[in-house]
Design a protein that fits this description.
Layout: H1 8-14, E1 17-27, E2 32-45, H2 50-58, E3 68-78, E4 87-97, E5 104-109, E6 119-125, E7 131-136, E8 140-150, E9 153-162, E10 166-175
Antiparallel strand pairs: 1-2, 1-10, 2-3, 3-4, 4-5, 5-6, 6-7, 7-8, 8-9, 9-10
Length: about 200
């Protein structure tokens, strides 16, 4: 994006809305790539929201340090899914900055992605206004980078190291009123736009 993003909470606010994600996941152990897709809904939560206060308490953090957060829900499918296998859920994110600019700090979640237990990670904005999220789970570590290619297109890269070693790339397109994508593209979840899954 041509406009700079001041801090992490601003990045989250720009991410609010409904997104369609096309993903290519590379399973390093199997040396294979898997395509998939999802719909993601991001809703902003104020620092005083009871759900954020509960998440702070869950992690033993002072709710007074919260600057806000969001509620994220998702519904996804992957090419290797078995019959009846579902990838859906809801998670609450709370941000507690550790610097005056609000560009780095703690990211509190009521549940993780790689594991469903509550987890606290770190967030940081890089020099290109990308948002980096690092999370250490009991059996694995994840690193994600989010960036905007435009107001309605978001890019996400992620790596997971541990019991499951994967590297993923996602292109996320904002869904505007009426259910159409901002880019004008239309495709079904799980129907990749290319052999690589995007």
């Amino acid at each position: 994006m041509s406009q700079s993003i001041a801090d992490a909470i601003s990045f989250f606010r720009l991410s609010c809305g409904r997104w369609r994600s096309q993903r290519s996941s590379h399973h390093l152990l199997h040396r294979r790539a898997e395509a998939g897709g999802s719909y993601i809904q991001v809703e902003e939560l104020s620092a005083s929201d009871p759900r954020l206060i509960a998440v702070a308490a869950l992690h033993g953090q002072d709710p007074g340090g919260l600057v806000g957060g969001c509620r994220v829900s998702w519904n996804a499918s992957m090419a290797w899914d078995q019959a009846g296998e579902a990838h859906e859920g809801v998670s609450v994110f709370g941000l507690i900055p550790s610097d005056e600019l609000g560009r780095a700090g703690l990211l509190l979640r009521d549940r993780g992605y790689a594991e469903t237990a509550p987890v606290a990670g770190r967030f940081a904005m890089d020099e290109r206004d990308g948002l980096l999220l690092t999370t250490s789970y009991e059996t694995m570590n994840s690193l994600e980078r989010f960036s905007f290619a435009g107001p309605n297109v978001r890019l996400r890269t992620s790596t997971v190291e541990g019991l499951s070693n994967t590297a993923s790339f996602c292109v996320e397109t904002r869904v505007v009123a009426g259910g159409a994508e901002a880019s004008g593209a239309a495709a079904n979840i799980g129907e990749p736009l290319s052999p690589l899954g995007w």
